[in-house]
């Protein structure tokens, strides 16, 4: 070993190959980083470009809101109130256009305006009966009769006309809206709201009016009867005073408040009316989509709803309700625009922009006693109770991960903000949808079912109260009786 000479081995190229592999991996990683930076820059550019377009005005200003709406739809956002606050009766104008006190010498002309007088209670009741009996479908001559598989959109309306205007604008921009029947269900009769609804010209329209409202029954049940027990009176005191329903406070010892019970009554009446009483829906077996006056829809909401319905059989055979809305505060369309998930229907998460057909409704309606006697003034919690306690086939939902229905209301039954007329949320939703549109995240070509994150099993719970009065139970049950 001491005298041996070491002879170098021939170069086989192994070291060269290792170096080449290292360089290739480095180049690949660098290319990925560059691609990621380009994508990030692209989406930031879209964001910044949209911001620049509206930087001259405040995001939630009226001018900014109007700039995001096609000019042909501005008519729905422009108030034309009948309730004139300034009377112009007797205004004298001369032929040159100046007032009678001016220097013009032309012949004076008298212009008089009829002063608007809102209808009284008797007239309102008469009009409600007339509308509900006529069942007049507007624009049917233009768009033809309702097809069996067309989507019926039902909007529950109270008094918030500003939000309703924006909902109508969003509906007008939706693809295939002309094939739908749009039903507005009112619990408050208002000429300005009626004028707005009857101005719609992009689809068939029908108005129905909840006949047991507080407006039409201000001093009697289901409104506020003078002899009703005060909310916070103790049961012992209620029995002594012999006020109405003294024997039946709610789970928490409180007595009914008409302003809270009305919403549940209205929802139940509306669903019964649409599925079981209207002539135009008598043979309809397609989807019925439920919206409210302070919702806002994406332009592909009907497209996506149809795709969800078509894919139910293979993606989610157990799903019997489709949900287009969520209460997320941020929206990631790049990740979730074509993704859906399925889970048991949860009232607090899936009560916005959901749809089901007559088969599902029939199962719900069979559980009317559960819905009408459950001590909770919320219709959605009552519906979840029905699903858990009564329905043989529970409500199981397919939910879009990237919402197509948004909640724009700042104020409502449960929430009272300082500024109820704020346009901040409306502006945010418009901005989100504009970015989604510009980055081609709407109208996906296919749906992808994702595995939902681990969800705790929804426990049976007692209601929120507000529904202990037996008169409410009876009224609710009577709405289920067939009238056709």
UniProtKB/TrEMBL annotation:
<dbReference type="GO" id="GO:0005795">
    <property type="term" value="C:Golgi stack"/>
</dbReference>
<keyword id="KW-0812">Transmembrane</keyword>
<dbReference type="Pfam" id="PF05060">
    <property type="entry name" value="MGAT2"/>
</dbReference>
<feature type="disulfide bond">
    <location>
        <begin position="372"/>
        <end position="476"/>
    </location>
</feature>
<feature type="transmembrane region" description="Helical">
    <location>
        <begin position="21"/>
        <end position="40"/>
    </location>
</feature>
<dbReference type="GO" id="GO:0006487">
    <property type="term" value="P:protein N-linked glycosylation"/>
</dbReference>
<dbReference type="InterPro" id="IPR029044">
    <property type="entry name" value="Nucleotide-diphossugar_trans"/>
</dbReference>
<keyword id="KW-1133">Transmembrane helix</keyword>
<dbReference type="GO" id="GO:0009312">
    <property type="term" value="P:oligosaccharide biosynthetic process"/>
</dbReference>
<keyword id="KW-0328">Glycosyltransferase</keyword>
<keyword id="KW-0808">Transferase</keyword>
<feature type="disulfide bond">
    <location>
        <begin position="411"/>
        <end position="420"/>
    </location>
</feature>
<feature type="disulfide bond">
    <location>
        <begin position="229"/>
        <end position="243"/>
    </location>
</feature>
<feature type="binding site">
    <location>
        <position position="187"/>
    </location>
    <ligand>
        <name>substrate</name>
    </ligand>
</feature>
<keyword id="KW-1015">Disulfide bond</keyword>
<keyword id="KW-0464">Manganese</keyword>
<keyword id="KW-0735">Signal-anchor</keyword>
<keyword id="KW-0325">Glycoprotein</keyword>
<feature type="disulfide bond">
    <location>
        <begin position="316"/>
        <end position="319"/>
    </location>
</feature>
<dbReference type="GO" id="GO:0008455">
    <property type="term" value="F:alpha-1,6-mannosylglycoprotein 2-beta-N-acetylglucosaminyltransferase activity"/>
</dbReference>
<protein>
    <recommendedName>
        <fullName>Alpha-1,6-mannosyl-glycoprotein 2-beta-N-acetylglucosaminyltransferase</fullName>
        <ecNumber>2.4.1.143</ecNumber>
    </recommendedName>
</protein>
<dbReference type="InterPro" id="IPR007754">
    <property type="entry name" value="GlcNAc_II"/>
</dbReference>
<feature type="binding site">
    <location>
        <begin position="156"/>
        <end position="160"/>
    </location>
    <ligand>
        <name>substrate</name>
    </ligand>
</feature>
<feature type="binding site">
    <location>
        <position position="294"/>
    </location>
    <ligand>
        <name>Mn(2+)</name>
    </ligand>
</feature>
<feature type="binding site">
    <location>
        <begin position="262"/>
        <end position="266"/>
    </location>
    <ligand>
        <name>substrate</name>
    </ligand>
</feature>
<dbReference type="GO" id="GO:0000139">
    <property type="term" value="C:Golgi membrane"/>
</dbReference>
<comment type="similarity">
    <text>Belongs to the glycosyltransferase 16 (GT16) protein family.</text>
</comment>
<feature type="disulfide bond">
    <location>
        <begin position="367"/>
        <end position="390"/>
    </location>
</feature>
<comment type="pathway">
    <text>Protein modification; protein glycosylation.</text>
</comment>
<keyword id="KW-0479">Metal-binding</keyword>
<feature type="binding site">
    <location>
        <position position="407"/>
    </location>
    <ligand>
        <name>Mn(2+)</name>
    </ligand>
</feature>
<dbReference type="GO" id="GO:0046872">
    <property type="term" value="F:metal ion binding"/>
</dbReference>
<keyword id="KW-0333">Golgi apparatus</keyword>
<keyword id="KW-0472">Membrane</keyword>
